[in-house]
């Protein structure tokens, strides 16, 4: 198998321009150690690109990306660019067109990082968020918005195909982990879409008798993330709930800046895309203070996806050593800069 990887780099906006190069320097370092090669090309797409060109990526942007093995992405968004129409947006386009229907968002304990929870018990679970349908299909409209009868409607669409494929992915993942899957729902009030979701997940669960499967309502789930996060192994959830739960997952780790993620096309018909869970954080951009750990973790997830498992593990060990040594950014109560964190991780490889 060829161990030459073609990586498209899309730093995006804000802190993406700082943490993506930091993360890429770790990738280059591990490639040397593990003796594989990376060829990369960088694209300046995002909200900044939109201000100049009227779109987030060029018309042939997806065709260009398609030729790569994976996309290493930062984040898009600038305060002066309206992001209420995500269908136009870079992230939405890539996720849907490349059928990245799995959003893989792990949550774990970082050694040496203070977290806001009372419990000291280790946390180690993965949120699997359905990434292309559900509440985010953008079907609906505003009707007579200026009149007294005005209304705004968004329709959620959950398809059998869409639920089955993400559920199979999540159950297979649980088989490789602690064999427990909790699916998050709100079928006591969303009586059409989420009862269908529950039903199909139960059907899929029959193929995985070795995985313990239970369900939890989203409201109860948020409480449990805070009170008993150690009970979770694989958390399977919808697009909207997954969006919200991932920020909570980042917060219970100690900072949003700690979360890495993958937008995965399991069939590998298209490249998958790896990015931190947070946004472009324009409020702290350009100061070398952004936390790059989530971005570096995303590089490890990308290598795992490409089959470089040992390299991925080495990055995770080096991250752990660095936080343990107290190399912490401002959001974690330290004073290390973005570049200093990357240098520490590289040294610990
Ligand atoms: P999006 O809509 O793209 O998710 P957002 O509006 O939710 O973006 P973020 O950009 O994620 O917002 O930022 C939320 C807060 O978290 C900001 O105060 C930001 O500074 C902080 N933050 C986010 N990422 C980091 C990071 N890597 N390091 C330090 N602070 C961060
Ligand atoms: Mg956000």
From TrEMBL:
SUPFAM superfamilies, A to Z: Isocitrate/Isopropylmalate dehydrogenase-like (SSF53659)
Record domain Isopropylmalate dehydrogenase-like: where: 6-345
UniProt keyword annotation of Transcription regulation present: no
Protein origin, superkingdom: Bacteria
PROSITE patterns: IDH_IMDH
Family annotation (InterPro entries): ICDH/IPMDH, IsoCit/isopropylmalate_DH_CS, IsoPropMal-DH-like_dom
Cofactor: Mn(2+); Mg(2+)
Protein known as: Isocitrate/isopropylmalate dehydrogenase family protein
Taxonomic lineage: Bacteria, Pseudomonadati, Bacteroidota, Flavobacteriia, Flavobacteriales
């Amino acid at each position: 198998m060829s161990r030459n990887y073609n990586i498209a780099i899309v730093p995006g906006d804000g802190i993406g321009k700082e943490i993506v190069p930091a993360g890429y320097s770790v990738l280059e370092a591990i490639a040397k150690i593990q003796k594989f090669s990376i060829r990369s090309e960088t694209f300046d797409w995002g909200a900044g690109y939109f201000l100049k060109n009227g779109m987030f990526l060029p018309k042939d942007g997806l065709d260009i990306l398609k030729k790569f093995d994976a996309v290493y992405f930062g984040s898009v968004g600038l305060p002066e660019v309206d992001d209420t129409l995500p269908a136009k947006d870079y992230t939405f386009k890539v996720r849907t067109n490349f059928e990245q229907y799995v959003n893989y968002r792990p949550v774990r304990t970082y050694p040496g990082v203070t977290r806001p929870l009372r419990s000291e018990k280790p946390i180690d679970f993965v949120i699997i968020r359905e990434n292309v349908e559900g509440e985010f299909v953008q079907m609906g409209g505003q009707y007579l918005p200026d009149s007294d009868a005005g209304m705004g409607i968004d329709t959620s669409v959950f398809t059998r195909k869409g639920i089955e494929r993400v559920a199979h992915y999540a159950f297979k993942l649980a088989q490789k982990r602690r064999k427990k899957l909790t699916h998050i729902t709100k079928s006591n009030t969303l009586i059409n879409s989420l009862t269908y979701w529950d039903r199909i997940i139960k059907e899929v669960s029959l193929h995985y008798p070795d995985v313990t499967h239970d369900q939890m309502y989203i409201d109860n789930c948020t409480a449990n993330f805070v009170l008993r996060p150690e009970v979770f192994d694989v958390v399977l959830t919808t697009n909207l709930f997954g969006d919200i739960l991932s920020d909570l997952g980042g917060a219970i780790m100690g900072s949003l800046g700690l979360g890495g993620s993958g937008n995965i096309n399991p069939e590998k018909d298209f490249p998958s895309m790896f990015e931190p869970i947070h946004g472009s954080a324009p409020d702290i951009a350009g100061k070398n203070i952004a936390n790059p750990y989530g971005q570096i973790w995303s590089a490890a997830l990308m290598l795992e996806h490409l089959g470089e498992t040992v390299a991925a593990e080495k990055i995770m060990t080096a991250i752990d050593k660095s936080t343990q040594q107290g190399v912490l950014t401002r959001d974690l109560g330290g004073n290390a800069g973005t570049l200093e964190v990357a240098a520490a991780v590289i040294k610990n490889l």
